[in-house]
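Thread: quick sanity check before group meeting

JM: Hey all, I'm pulling together slides for Thursday and realized we never actually wrote out the predicted structure for the chain we discussed last week. Dropping the sequence here so it's in one place. If anyone has concerns about the input, flag it before I start.
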Amino acid sequence: MFIAPITSFLRIALSYHWWQTAIDLVVIGLVVYTVIRFLRGTRGAHMLRGIAFVLITLSALVQLVGGALNLTHLTFLYNKFLTFAFFAIVVVFQPELRRVLLKLGETRLFRGWSDQLEQEVEELVEASNFLSRRKIGALIAIEQENSLSGLTENATRVNADLTAPLLDTIFWPNSPLHDMGVVVSQGRIMYAGVQFPLADSDELEKELGTRHRAAVGLSKEYDAVVIVVSEETGDVSIAERGQLIRKLTPEGLRGLLTELLGGGGDNMPKKKPKLAA
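JM (edit): ok, ran it. Output follows.
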């Protein structure tokens, strides 16, 4: 049953030069790797695995049953189904596809990224410093490759320029949005009042509260860089890939953000950021 498709594939592959076949396989591998890496840590990854399982199972059944019983109509209908499935996948993954197009249009290669990144970092540092001095709690997630759109269904859409005064206003005590998180994407404050997933309480030190648990929990599931300001102590920390770097000075925060958000390069000192006294 499975020998015929394999023989057909080998016959087609051998009709080309070996280097042409190798290039084809490398390109296919890169595409698959890019898709998996792009969706890793998001809800889309689980959906993609489910879709792949269904399509592989159906393809195997069609080849098995259709080949054994010579059901040409079944093969025809399955090919039509694949066309429908392609458009359905485009609809299902519309947020991810939209984000890819936005990233391509606003990629750092085309937008003078170093100046913009420096400005974004300065706004984040200024806001964190302001909130820290006044012991106002804050939670800011800077979106990276993995989309945070799955967390924003019940959030408040802002879609405004990233500025320190706006962040200060959002987190000001008694503001309707000050208790939850903010999502920054493409240099803009996209959402406020976002509920982040919490890390287990036993993973952090006992004096750390819900904001720190939310920062670490989000950074474990996504590749976002999360700034958290403690309401009790005013300490500024960064959570990244499940790790929490605490008590950052403004200089330490600036250097770490620049490095994590892509502006460090070879000129960034490879040392631990300076901590507050």
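AS: nice. The two ends are 71 Å apart (CA to CA). The domain at 112-267 is CATH 3.40.1700.10 (YojJ-like (1).
JM: adding both to the slides.
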